[in-house]
Amino acid sequence: MIRGIHHINFLVRDLDAAIERYERLLGVAVDRVAELPGRGVRIGRFRAGNSWIALVQPIAAGEPMRHLERYGEGFYLISYRVDDVEAAAAAVRRAGGRTTSDSPRTGLDGWRVIDLDPADAGGLILQLCEDDAWGEGL
Fold first, then answer.
1. Where are the beta strands (DSSP E) in the chain?
2. Is residue 82 part of a domain?
3. Least C-beta-crowded within 10 Å: which of 66, 105, 127, 131?
4. pLDDT digits (tens, 9 = 90+) for 33-59
């Protein structure tokens, strides 16, 4: 079911400062900055091998903002690449796991994601991600 790591999110308080720091210290090029109003976040992303790294700045009330306030900057979630997010979520449910919603939501660049219940993952925030454009630009 899992084909790899699609993306890893890190929460930051100031996206512009985080982008400057990552580009300077790690020699990466953030190739896309976007706002997801439905999630209340701004995101900057870059490739790390066959995966994406997303720097996420909460800009509105919601779960990402609560997480940042509670735990501070740093690791937020890991997203596993799957071929079919609905089929993968159904497999998780058949195995006794839960998802936080019945259907996927649309993320950056049309990524289709569904979150697993953190209680089923030792408190970690995990998600499944389907990306029709996966591999383009690698």
1. 4-11, 32-36, 41-48, 51-58, 74-81, 105-106, 112-115, 126-130
2. yes
3. 66
4. 999 999 999 999 999 999 999 999 999
Smallest Cα–Cα separation from 107: which of 133, 73, 135? 133
Q: How far is CA 83 from the centre of its chain?
A: 16
Strands 74-81 and 126-130: parallel
Residue 64: which of 132, 11, 104 has the closest Cα?
11
Alpha-carbon span 108 to 131, nearest angstrom: 10
Contact 97, 120 (CB under 8 A): yes
| Encoded tokens for 43 | 């995101």
- Give the CATH number for residue 54: 3.10.180.10
84 is a domain residue: yes
> Looking at the domain assignment, is residue 9 inside a domain?
yes
CA 107/CA 98 separation, integer angstroms: 20
The partner residues of 126 in beta bridges, in order of sequence, read 78
* Cα 89 to the center of its chain, rounded Å: 16
